[in-house]
Amino acid sequence: MAVKKMILDLDTGVDDALALAYALATPDADLIGIVSSYGNTLVDTAAENSLKLLELLDASDVPVFLGESHSSTTDDFATMEISMAIHGRNGIGEVELPKAARPVEAKHAVDFIIEAAHEYGEDLIIVPTGPLTNLALAMQKDPSIADLIGNITLMGGALVVPGNVTAYTEANINQDPQAADYVFKHAKHLVMVGLDVTLQTLLTKKETQVWRDLGSKKGQIFADIFDYYIDAYDRLDINHDGAALHDPLAVGVAVDPKLVTLLGINMQVTHEDGRTIGDPERLRDTHKTNFAAVEVDVPGYLERFMNYMNIVLSD
């Protein structure tokens, strides 16, 4: 069986950094590229962060592509103050990394997604951990790829728990509800790894100390990055017990959906605020194209996560 090819669509903040590391470490997929988005930070900063992290992790062969800088219904984007408080103004916990030795690719992220869909088809996994603007635009530019992409596993949404922007709305989906709605309704196979499960997977300074104890530069830097996130969760009264592994859980589920319990439910995204909810027009359709993660094997996932991180962060 062919190894799955993975594209990450990152608005590279703190948990995106961990998702990137997980994607490099898992033996179940080959990371073929990163497309950059806006959200936790500006798209240019997200791309630069990805380049820096790939260099740190000895993965400079993975290309980075610049994506859309704002939502499909706006003309610009400004990072929210709460995002900067959680991720730092540079997106990676105020940790300063050397400027990347290489630039982003000349090709636009949307064109890279389209080409990869035609090349890899069913073997392609796309993992968006920010807004779905890039993916929606790619599917609109070349509608045939909706039936080619084997697996879209995204971090976003909230089905049975409150949102983190409004009472119902999660931040990534809220950034571009129209794009999210399009992707949910047109994807062949979409798994939503939302707040329902990501808020259950917490990391603490006990785990980041393990990275420090590796005695590597990589371990030290990633511990510094995530400790900023943990401190922000505590300071902002988000969670005093640790910080959620939002984006890395999506990568984990993308390659091993058995980590979660999936509810088959064809969904829509409300354009007004980005609520992820059942689509009345498709609810009775026996063929499900959308699946929402509603339970997660927390001990199993955390053990695997730490094993992979210890591998990728060791010198």
Automatic annotation (TrEMBL):
This is Possible pyrimidine nucleoside phosphorylase. InterPro entries: Inosine/uridine_hydrolase_dom, IUNH, Ribo_hydro-like. GO terms for molecular function: purine nucleosidase activity. CDD domains: nuc_hydro_CaPnhB. GO terms for cellular component: cytosol. It holds the Pfam family IU_nuc_hydro. The keyword Hydrolase applies. One of its GO terms (biological process) is purine nucleoside catabolic process. It comes from the Bacteria. Residues 6-302 form the Inosine/uridine-preferring nucleoside hydrolase domain. The lineage of its organism: Bacteria, Bacillati, Bacillota, Bacilli, Lactobacillales. Keywords: Glycosidase, Hydrolase. The keyword Transmembrane helix does not apply.
